[in-house]
Each structure stands twice: as structure tokens, then as C-alpha cells.
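Collaborator request, handled under Task 6.
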Amino acid sequence: MLPRLATARKGRGVFKRILSGLSGANLEIFKFGMYIMFPIGWMYYFGTNLESRFSVPDFWPSPESTNKIPHEREELLAELERLKNRRLEIRARRLEMEARAKEDSGSAG
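C-alpha cells returned to the collaborator:
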């Protein structure tokens, strides 16, 4: 345990020696450099290599599983026909359920 404390004190002494040499104009230049370099370093660290550093695997859906937007006239007409058929199918199911509900309520009363 003692050698570790000795190295820690030695390291602190080096830092203290460096800072004790900074006074007056040198201290102001050092502070100005830190004020300029800290934000630049921060932006560089968080701005580079973003794809691998801050990525969540499979966050975005794959292109195969997303909707394909039709661009050609035939594709648009086919998509409209599909949507119309789907809407009519849902409407038919709803009307059938309403008819059953009306029939059940008529026979119960």
C-alpha cells in the first residue's frame, strides 16, 4: 500500500510543479487554451465514429420490412385496388357483426 501512495504523491507533485510554473500571462494563456480546446475535443470525441460508438443494433427496421412506396402508375393502381378491397372487406365484416348483434338483441327481447 505504501508504494502506491508514494507514486500518487509523486504524480501530484509533478502536476503541482507544472501548475506552479503557470502564473500571470502563462496562466491566462493556459486557461484560454483549455477554454478553446475542451469544447473542440468534446465535439471531436462525440462527433467522430458515431455509427459504431453510439449505435443500437437493429434500432431501425430493415428495408425489406418497411413499406414500399409505389412510383409507377400500374403500381399505384394496384395499391389503390388492394386498399379498396381491404376497406370493403372490413366494411362487410362490420355490417355482418352489426346484423348479428341486431338479430341477437331482437331475439333476446
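The cover message to the collaborator said: "Helices lie at 2-20, 25-47, 50-53, 73-108. The longest helix spans residues 73-108. Please let us know whether this matches your experimental observations."
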